[in-house]
C-alpha cells in the first residue's frame, strides 16, 4: 500500500473531499476517490469521513492507496492493429470476430487479453474483466475503439460519450434500397421482453437512442450507408436499421436468413474522433473497410 498526505490550501476550502483529491492528482478519478472514501481509506485529521465532507484550510488528508487488484484475465500476445498510443489513451482497430472483453465462460482470445500483453497500464474503473474499456463494439463488428490507460483518461472519455461529443461513424450494407439520402432514427432501445438476448425499439425500460445515416451508394437489393451514433446503446445501429425496414446484411440476430455470404453483420466502425483527455486537442482516426467487407461490396457492384 502507498500512503499520500495532502494539506488543504486556502483555494480549496469548502470544496468536497472527493473533488479536492481528484484535482490534486491527474491519475485519480473522482469515482475512484469515492470508492477509497467509502472503503475507509481516506482520513481527515485522523478521522474517517464521508464523500460529501467539505474541506477546511489546513485539513490534513491521508490517503491509503491499496495495491492494484490482481487481474483474473491472462495477457495474450496478439498482433494488434494500434492506430495511436500515448501515456493516456490508445486507439485500436478491432478485427471482425474478436470479442472486446472477457465474460464468464469466455476469458481468452479477447481484445482485453491482447491489450494486457501489449501494455500494463490500463484504467481500472470498469473492473478486472474490462480494464481500459470505455466503449464496445460487437464481436462481428470491426473497427476503431478508444482505450483508457489510466482513470483520468477513462473518466474524460466517458464524459465525452455522455456529452455526445465523440465522433463515431460506421459503414454498413443494409437490405433494401433506401430512397432518401439522409435520415435520423430517434427511437428508444431496451431489452426484448421475449428474447432477453436481443434489443428492440420499445418504450418499456428503455433508453434514448439516436442514429443519423446517409446513403453512400444504392444497388438493386442493397444500400451502402454511413451511420453516425449520437448515443451508444447495445446493438444500436443493428436495431435501428431493422426498425426502419433496412436490416444489416449478414446480421444473424436482426437480419433475414437469406443474406450475403458474411460471417456476421456488414458493419465497420471506420471513423473515431475525441478530445484528448490531457492535451484537450481533438483527434480523429479512420480505418479502411476490412478485405471481406470490401470484397462483398465489390461483388454487389458487379452484380447490380
TrEMBL record:
Residues 15-79 form the RNA-binding S4 domain. It comes from the Bacteria. Its EC number is 5.4.99.-. Gene3D superfamilies: Pseudouridine synthase (3.30.2350.10), RNA-binding S4 domain (3.10.290.10). InterPro entries: PsdUridine_synth_cat_dom_sf (IPR020103), PsdUridine_synth_RluA-like_CS (IPR006224), PsdUridine_synth_RluC/D (IPR006225), PsdUridine_synth_RsuA/RluA (IPR006145), RluA_PseudoU_synthase (IPR050188), S4_RNA-bd (IPR002942), S4_RNA-bd_sf (IPR036986). Keywords: Isomerase, RNA-binding. One of its GO terms (biological process) is enzyme-directed rRNA pseudouridine synthesis. It catalyses: a uridine in RNA = a pseudouridine in RNA. PANTHER family: MITOCHONDRIAL RNA PSEUDOURIDINE SYNTHASE, RIBOSOMAL LARGE SUBUNIT PSEUDOURIDINE SYNTHASE D. Belongs to the pseudouridine synthase RluA family. Responsible for synthesis of pseudouridine from uracil. This is Pseudouridine synthase. The lineage of its organism: Bacteria, Bacillati, Bacillota, Bacilli, Bacillales.
Amino acid at each position: 500500500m502507498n500512503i499520500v498526505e495532502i494539506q488543504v490550501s486556502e483555494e480549496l476550502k469548502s470544496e468536497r473531499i472527493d473533488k479536492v483529491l481528484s484535482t490534486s492528482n491527474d491519475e485519480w478519478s473522482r469515482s475512484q476517490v469515492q470508492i477509497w472514501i467509502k472503503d475507509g481509506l481516506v482520513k481527515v485529521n485522523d478521522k474517517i469521513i464521508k464523500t460529501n465532507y467539505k474541506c477546511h484550510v489546513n485539513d490534513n488528508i491521508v490517503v491509503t492507496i491499496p495495491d492494484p487488484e490482481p487481474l483474473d484475465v491472462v495477457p495474450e500476445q496478439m498482433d494488434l492493429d494500434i492506430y495511436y498510443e500515448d501515456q493516456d489513451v490508445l486507439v485500436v482497430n478491432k478485427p471482425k470476430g474478436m470479442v472486446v472483453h472477457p465474460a464468464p465462460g469466455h476469458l481468452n482470445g479477447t481484445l482485453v487479453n491482447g491489450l494486457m500483453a501489449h501494455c500494463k497500464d490500463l484504467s481500472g474503473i470498469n473492473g478486472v474483466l474490462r480494464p481500459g474499456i470505455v466503449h464496445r463494439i460487437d464481436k462481428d463488428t470491426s473497427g476503431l475503439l478508444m482505450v483508457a490507460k489510466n482513470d483520468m483518461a477513462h473518466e474524460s472519455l466517458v464524459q465525452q460519450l455522455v456529452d455526445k461529443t465523440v465522433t463515431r461513424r460506421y459503414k454498413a450494407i443494409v437490405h433494401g434500397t433506401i430512397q432518401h439520402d439522409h435520415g435520423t432514427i430517434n427511437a428508444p432501445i431496451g431489452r426484448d421482453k421475449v428474447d432477453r438476448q436481443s434489443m428492440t425499439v420499445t418504450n418499456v425500460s428503455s433508453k434514448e437512442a439516436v442514429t443519423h445515416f446517409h446513403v453512400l451508394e444504392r444497388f438493386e437489393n442493397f444500400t451502402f450507408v454511413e451511420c453516425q451514433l449520437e448515443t451508444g446503446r447495445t446493438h444500436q445501429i443493428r436495431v435501428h436499421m431493422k426498425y426502419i425496414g433496412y436490416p444489416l446484411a449478414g446480421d444473424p440476430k436482426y437480419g433475414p436468413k437469406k443474406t450475403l455470404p458474411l460471417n456476421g453483420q456488414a458493419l465497420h466502425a471506420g471513423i473515431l474522433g475525441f478530445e484528448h483527455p490531457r492535451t484537450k486537442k481533438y483527434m480523429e482516426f479512420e480505418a479502411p473497410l476490412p478485405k471481406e467487407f470490401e470484397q462483398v461490396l465489390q461483388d454487389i457492384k458487379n452484380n447490380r
